[in-house]
Design goal:
mainly alpha; 88 residues; globular; 65% helix
Length: 88
């Protein structure tokens, strides 16, 4: 799942978080911080800031965040990804 997020960025993050909220036990057991750190070209500092903006702790599991947190996180990651596309 981390490779899916690394490859697809915000859309991959959104898919994994939706699966986690729909009962996929594997997706639900991953920390949100690990998922966000998988998005390229985010740095660890970016990931920390985005989690803070979405009111998500570093230790929160993907299956435990609220729909509002999920939307806020994907929104900020998507906005960043559009402004800073990964370099090839």
């Amino acid at each position: 799942m981390l490779s899916e997020v690394a490859e697809d960025g915000a859309s991959g993050l959104s898919r994994v978080l939706r699966r986690a909220s729909s009962g996929d036990e594997d997706a639900a057991a991953i920390t949100v911080s690990a998922l966000v750190r998988s998005v390229r070209p985010l740095t660890a500092l970016d990931a920390h800031e985005f989690l803070r903006r979405a009111h998500i702790r570093e230790t929160d599991l993907a299956g435990d965040i609220s729909p509002g947190q999920r939307v806020a996180l994907v929104s900020v990651v998507d906005r960043f990804s559009h402004l800073h596309p990964p370099r090839l």
